[in-house]
Amino acid sequence: MRETVVFDLDDVLFDATFLKRVARERAVLSMIDAGLPVDFETAIKTLSSVIEEKGEDYGKHFDEMLERLGIKWDPRIIAAGVVAYHNTKFSLLEPNPGIFKVILSLRDEGFRVGVASIGPAVKDWEKLIRLNLHHIFHVYKIGLSSWTELFREMDPSATILVSADPNGIAEAARAGARTVRLLKGRFSHVKSKDADREVKDIWGILNAVKSLSEGL
């Protein structure tokens, strides 16, 4: 058995950056339609600042947005945003084109394949199940507190991490794992010196992993 190739969830298995952007935009438009008395640009800018400061897993983004806008809390407006956000998320959540074949090709080559995520375990399992990718991996490390935790549970010398997140790549490199960085998503413009390989598309992952495994 060859090395274990661990795939990050967001922006590798699916386009998380695109999905979140569209879902937030549609949520704001729905809130305006429900009576939010501000223009779209003001609302989306305020929502973005809340998410940036509170984190993506904070449970009251829309409530905080209304407070910062100086608008009285309104359950109808909040509900409109929640419904639009979740409807968009469910309708647009689909695997990145080619990722399923790349994973199966690595399995056929004799690699073990795994998936890992940093964040709330139930939410990330929901994503994985909705993507219909929950049954093809050998290793599941969902809901980790950090990438450091992953390498406390796995042998870094026998692991290759595939991620679009330069922070995850850096932590993996410090732990002694080899890394493939996919230049997609919200961090695609961020430069990193830690990745062993950088690829611009899903199909590049296959050759990058094989070359690292062969010591090329």
Reconstruct the topology from this structure:
Layout: E1 4-8, H1 16-33, H2 40-54, H3 61-68, H4 75-92, H5 99-108, E2 112-118, H6 121-130, E3 139-144, H7 147-153, E4 159-163, H8 166-175, E5 178-182, E6 197-199, H9 203-213
Parallel strand pairs: 1-2, 1-4, 2-3, 4-5, 5-6
Helix pairs in contact: 1-2, 1-4, 2-3
Low-confidence stretches: none
- N to C succession of SSEs: EHHHHHEHEHEHEEH
The CATH class assignment of the largest domain is Alpha Beta
- Mean pLDDT over the full residue set: 93
| Sequence of strands across the biggest β-sheet | 3-2-1-4-5-6
What does it look like?
By secondary structure, this protein is an alpha/beta fold. It has two domains: 132 residues, Rossmann fold (3-Layer(aba) Sandwich), CATH 3.40.50; 76 residues, DNA polymerase, domain 1 (Orthogonal Bundle). Helices cover 50% and strands 14% of the residues. The protein contains nine helices and six strands. The protein has a six-stranded parallel sheet, with helices on both faces. Strand 4, helix 8 and strand 5 form a beta-alpha-beta unit. Helix 2 packs across helix 3. It is elongated. The mean pLDDT is 93.
